[in-house]
Amino acid sequence: MRLLHGLVGIIATCALxxxxxxxxxxxxxxxxPTPTPPxxxxxxxxxxxxxxxxxxxxxxxxxxxxxxxDQPLNCGFSHCRLNLTAQRTGPAxxxxxxxxxxxxxxxxxxxxxxxxxxxxFLHVKGDGQVVADARTxxxxxxxxxxxxxxxxxxxxxxxxxxxxxxxxxxxQLWDDNQNLLAKPLWRTLxxxxxxxxxxxxxxxxxxxxxxxIRIGKSPLTWLALRPEQLSVAQPDISGGAVIISLxxxxxxxxxxxxxxxxxxxxxxxxxxxxxxxxxxxxFAVPVLLxxxxxxxxxxxxxxxxxxxxxxxxxxxxxxxxxxxxxxxxVTVKFCADPGWDPFGWLASCGTVYLRGTPAFxxxxxxxxxxxxxxxxxxxxxxxxxxxALAGNLLAKRLEGHLQFxxxxxxxxxxxxxxxxxxxPQGDDLTIAIHVESFGRPSFTWSATGFIAVFSxxxxxxxxxxx
Length: 466
Prior knowledge:
The protein is an alpha+beta fold. It has a domain at 50-196. It has 9 helices and 24 strands. It has helices at 2-17, 50-60, 170-176, 178-194, 198-208, 291-304, 376-385, 393-399, 407-422; strands at residues 20-22, 39-49, 64-74, 79-88, 93-97, 100-115, 123-140, 146-163, 166-169, 213-217, 220-233, 236-238, 241-256, 272-274, 280-290, 308-309, 312-324, 327-338, 348-361, 366-374, 403-405, 429-438, 442-445, 449-464. The strands form 3 sheets. Strands 2, 10, 11, 12, 13, 14, 15, 22, 23 and 24 form a 10-stranded mixed beta sheet that branches. The longest helix is centred in the middle third of the chain and has 17 residues, at 178-194. The termini are far apart.
């Protein structure tokens, strides 16, 4: 009889502590969709000094700048035909003020003039020194073609046509035939200016923006940009420079990869012409805390400080975090040991499910799961198997270990971003970004983890080598 009473006690104890139990898995609704990285803006102002433009024009302008052959013109006393060559005799000089490029170009001319009609036997030759003063307006098309429109004056110094003792002033002939003789010269200058490799440099900038930027070493972390739109303002000619403003609309994200992640460039889209230039940037970067990493952090915290609840030592064997609509489900595998069972023979082990709401303390940059409570099926199971933990004691103690301090990671990431973006990116067209401030992160979660999105603001510095 005494043996029977002992077995009944053991059975009752097992019933009290459950021996082993598993709650039914809860119903889960789809996780919130992974948010598309916010659209960010990187605006840059390119200042091309007039001296650099002059050097480029000199390097790309052939010494032969005009060659007219059998050009009809009015000689006053007759109709004539002119052969004329113009050779540059010195470097061009350029100033950039008040919306206009002013270009001065010295050259020498050699001319041959033949008359028609009864004076067809007359053939005269001449030469002279000339200075062309041109005023040039610039514009950019959505195809990034640079258009130049030049006009101006040509000044002659001792330029005459000679036939024995007879001389004629070339300047007077030029003035009388301005439309015929000046247009080819201005067209030549426009062609030289329009050959500036602006489109090639901007296209290279577009492709180069896709190259991931390494911002962290341990672990290897990359900032990947996906430009979507390029905008450009019409040139502003002032202050001794041609100023061109660009703006990239990009989506950015931070990736942890052992090597540079693939990020192939897309073709350059049709460029938008923008009205307001800027040299500022503002972009948002999403940072992911995967659920499995959060679970590992929680398990490490529990292993370091195992809780005692209702006189029992609670040992956690596994935690899993699963998204479910407006909350998350926390799967908990644990064992509860009565304090009077030193050998753990009567430990009650099982699996339960709790629900909680993700939250983010933007000031302290701590992600947490709040308002943790049993899923309804788990609550009913605990009432019948492990009544001592049927209330909110387990949930409250577990909540303290479901807090993930991301402040150190975010601070390190911000430092890495500031350092990486300050380094000039690109070759001939280089961009360096000075981060002035970071905004408070926003927060959400998706099928893969918790997502904090933080923003950065600052200035963009550029240099263009044409």
